[in-house]
Amino acid sequence: MGSRDDDLRYGGITLLASAEGGRYPCGNSLLVAGTEATALVDPSIEVGRRGRAVGPVDLAFVSHGHEDHVAGLHVFPEVPAHAHPADAPAVRETEALLAGFGMDDAAADVFREELRTDFGITGHADVREVTDGDVIDLGGRTLTVVHLPGHTAGHCGLLVEPDGFLFIGDIDLTGFGPYYGDVSSDLDALEASFDRLRGIEARWYGTAHQKGVVEGREAFLAALDTYAGVVARRDETLLGLLAERPRTVAEVVEHRLVYRPHVQLPFVPTVERRTAEQHLARLERAGVVRAEGGTWAIS
Ligand SMILES: [Zn+2]
């Protein structure tokens, strides 16, 4: 096996340790070994670094089509990768991945280059589509697909049994809070996914980033509440801005609801815009804000 001494083990699951502790642009990749086959889950930059030493790998599973979750897939071009139909195109093709962010052309040009140089993304020929409830049998160990949309439309978790390890991908329980800034993102769907997760009993809840693995349902539920609470905090930030005076969406984007002021990534403006628009739409439906002219104001 290609695991190292500093990798973390949970039953039959190995989490590949990274120098970044899973922090973006890195991520947590899992190796899940059955008696018949070994699955590689969310091949990250760390997999790119280790190369074939990670192997042998028989199949891959990708929770969703974001760059940090497919960065190591090029190490195993011959292996079938599994993803939800809504995100499978982004796993197959760099251009589909890029299109998911809905950036303008100039930002897309910058990010296209980063996908190639920083992430090593090449696209993947053999991508097979899996949906909620599908089971991948590794021999004495199974992976059950749990569709958890919202972050992206095809975002999926994976329940590994008999270990009771639930991989929840980018519902990553970090202080950053939930991300729903893609073209296919949907905040209401994401909150429904949180509710679904609250009902799933597992021993371990594994995230794709620096929060790592949370043990026990009680600790998981507390972490999920804190994480989900960031959505309400963004509402408060937004309402605070509108309380000062009516604002255009561009002004809200400029102030930022999601990223800190110093963060300069090509997708920040579009992510901020889509996030602001979803919050405004929800607050409008709730009768809390209203559009007037080109601005938004407290009702
Ligand atoms: Zn993601």
TrEMBL record:
Q: Name the Gene3D superfamilies for this protein.
A: Ribonuclease Z/Hydroxyacylglutathione hydrolase-like (3.60.15.10)
Residues of the Metallo-beta-lactamase domain = 26-209
The UniProt entry, under SUPFAM superfamilies, shows: Metallo-hydrolase/oxidoreductase
Q: Where is the signal peptide?
A: none
Pfam families xrefs: Lactamase_B (PF00753)
Q: What is this protein called?
A: Metallo-beta-lactamase superfamily protein
Species annotation: Geodermatophilus nigrescens
